[in-house]
# Entry
Amino acid sequence: MTVIVDDAGSGDLLFGVVIGVYRQETSDFKYDLIDVRFYQEIFKEKAYLKESSRIVSKLVADFNPKADEEIHICQGCIFDVAADDLRKVYGEDRVKRVHVEGEAQRLIEIAYIDELHNLGYEPLTEREEKRGKNFFHMMRWLKNNPEMLKYAKTGWPKLKNYQLFKKLPVIAHQTEHGAQTYKAVCADCGHNCEVHFQPDVTKPVYCKKCWKQHKPHKPVKRPKKSRKKK
# Structure
């Protein structure tokens, strides 16, 4: 018996990364997601490696590998921390880095494609064979749907060469009434906007229209009941 671990989407511009685990003898399959936020502002911190390990450890544990069952994990660098952590639990001899092919790879690719469909994006059929074409196909889709930029791996250094992914500088402006405003990008709709505070890159900023959906509701104050004097 063998448990196989693979990923899909780590080299794609859109969405996060699908991590899947497959047992070939029983055809059991489960997957989970590394959220796209790990590939945005915090990408350079490589927190996605620990998140990958957390997901892999949980999925493999769900399969409850038998004492003589090997765990084959993809050679991709996204699993470097995960592989080491698995060896600590299951032993050096049982965890092997391999090139994943066959049904395991197919199922994990399908899971990633399904997630792309949920975004409204129709991927290229030859996306794996033509990586360059696939990248620009996704980028054109983002240009036509700027509100979906929140689902792009914007932390990649190479994206700084493209106007679409360049951040607006934090520039203060004076309104006619003397108040300062700052340029920002709405975390919901992706459109440019101005706010009256300096944006913090670790927190979402919303335009006036989208802020209405996130604005906390104030509790309704009920009038106090007057006590009658005896």
